[in-house]
Design brief:
Length: 476
């Protein structure tokens, strides 16, 4: 997955074939961006906040460079990839030859699901088909190029769907890339600016349908479709129509999450400096980030410094949720079907943090302020209102990303005009009320002793719970 070529994804349900521009979806939607963007965000997704993304396919066999190995090797003839093949494989070796080594012999869906539960995530999205076209279920529309016909000879999607559902704590979903680099139907339609629809009508829609048949019961709740490249997709509004046609017959899904534009859905390959995060992003639907900064798929040539730290991971969660977003955190399993310990460690660390600080993340919503004006490493959320008349909004969460080692206290400018409304300030995971005092430009909150924080194993980021005597008005 890359921002440059396929920067927009969408979660969908209940869509069916659109053969003509005038056709609608259940009488509500037409193939225009404005129509697709009007779909409501489902409550379960908005409450979940954190999900796991899995990129797994034939690209895990060479495990070199990134999941875009094939296009870098044969599409752009990148020197690094050409040399890798020349040095390690015999002449005439094809990308398809890798598939027989995609064995997944150590893949245990239950172990994966258990890890994802421990991570604190609320949903899981598996890449069912990436741009290489290989599917992780026995699709009749990718004969000889799926996980049942060649490779592990297993229905990966079906196995993981069952294990995830069995936890009773996670929603399962799939990611389906709409385009395929070397599919002749796709390249034909692409070269004609998608004025022809042989690929989407004859391949994508049928393939998506096979994922959601009642007998298969492959997934429930959420599906991610990688749209056509944005440089072509906006021509003549063809991309919305193609996207909707590709979603042929998937009425069994339960949730529409919405169409994500590049401005709303951000693909993170390196940590984003806090200063670059927009101050007001309440309509932001989501962000996807990968623990390996340089690849979404598995890389045998990865170095330790290529992986985000736990502190960076927690920071991305806090900043995204503060701005009203939902974050997908990606791992890339090996060809054998294992998840490397460094990925597992990051996920388990994340789960420990969410177990303590989850009140500030799950079912939260943006506050009037996202980022503090005095301390730039503080991000705010608040509990979601149950109704517009709800008067119980007296709790604000301030997530402090950097520990104040020098002063053991933090300055908060967001409360400069509300000092008299503050009843109590506590830290999640620490039961005793904290000392605080008003200042000329806000309030100063004293942290517990560092020894006590370490004893309680409160790491990575620290959440202050500010209780107000009456509800502070919220926008929206």
């Amino acid at each position: 997955m890359r921002l440059v070529r396929t920067s927009v994804c969408l979660f969908v349900w209940g869509l069916f074939c659109l053969g003509a521009r005038s056709t609608t979806l259940d009488g509500k939607y037409v193939p225009t961006w404005e129509s697709l963007d009007s779909r409501p965000l489902p409550k379960w997704y908005d409450d979940a906040k954190v999900g796991i993304f899995i990129h797994w396919g034939v690209y895990a066999v060479p495990s070199y460079g990134s999941e875009w190995f094939w296009i870098n090797w044969k599409g752009s003839n990148t020197t690094e990839y050409v040399q890798f093949m020349n040095n390690n494989y015999k002449p005439g070796f094809t990308y398809q030859d890798f598939a027989s080594d995609f064995t997944a012999e150590l893949f245990n869906a239950t172990e994966w699901a258990d890890l994802f539960v421990r991570s604190g995530a609320r949903y899981v999205v598996l890449t069912s088909k990436h741009h290489e076209g290989y599917t992780l279920w026995p699709s009749k529309h990718t004969f000889g190029w799926n996980s049942m016909d060649v490779g592990p000879h297993r229905d990966i999607v079906g196995e993981l769907a069952g294990a995830v559902r069995a936890t009773g704590q996670l929603t399962f979903g799939v990611y389906y890339s709409l385009f395929e680099w070397f599919n002749r139907l796709y390249t034909h339609d692409r070269d004609l600016a998608f004025l022809h629809r042989e690929y989407v009508d004859g391949k994508c829609g049928l393939s998506c349908r096979s994922l959601s048949t009642p007998t298969g019961q492959k997934f429930c709740g959420v599906m991610v479709i990688g749209k056509l490249p944005t440089d072509i997709g906006r021509r003549g509004n063809s991309s919305p129509g193609c996207t909707m046609t590709a979603l042929l017959g998937i009425r069994s899904l339960r949730t529409i999450v919405g169409v994500w534009e590049p401005s709303a859905f951000t693909v993170i390959s390196t940590p984003v400096p806090i200063a670059t995060i927009p101050v007001c992003c309440r309509n932001t639907s989501g962000k996807a980030m990968t623990i390996d900064r340089k690849s979404w798929g598995h890389r045998a040539n990865a170095r330790l410094e290529d992986f985000v730290t736990t502190d960076e991971l927690i920071g991305e969660i806090a900043t995204t949720v503060s701005c009203g977003g939902n974050i997908l955190i990606n791992v890339g399993p090996t060809k054998a079907g294992t998840i490397d310990p460094i990925f597992a460690e990051r996920l388990v660390d994340m789960g420990r943090w969410l177990k303590v600080n989850g009140d500030a993340i799950y079912k939260s919503q943006p506050w009037d302020y996202q980022n503090d004006t005095l301390t730039g490493t503080v991000w705010y959320t608040t509990a979601k209102r149950s109704s517009r008349r709800d008067t119980n909004f007296r709790t604000i969460f301030a997530i402090v990303l950097d520990y104040p080692y020098k002063t053991n206290s933090v300055r908060l400018g967001a409360f400069s005009n509300q000092v008299t409304k503050i009843v109590q300030i506590t830290m999640l995971g620490f039961n005793t009320a904290l000392k605080w005092k008003p200042t000329d430009d806000g309030i100063l909150v004293e942290f517990p002793s560092k020894n006590e924080i370490d004893r309680l194993k409160l790491h990575h980021a620290w959440t202050l719970k500010i209780t107000l005597s009456s509800r502070w008005p919220l926008n929206g």
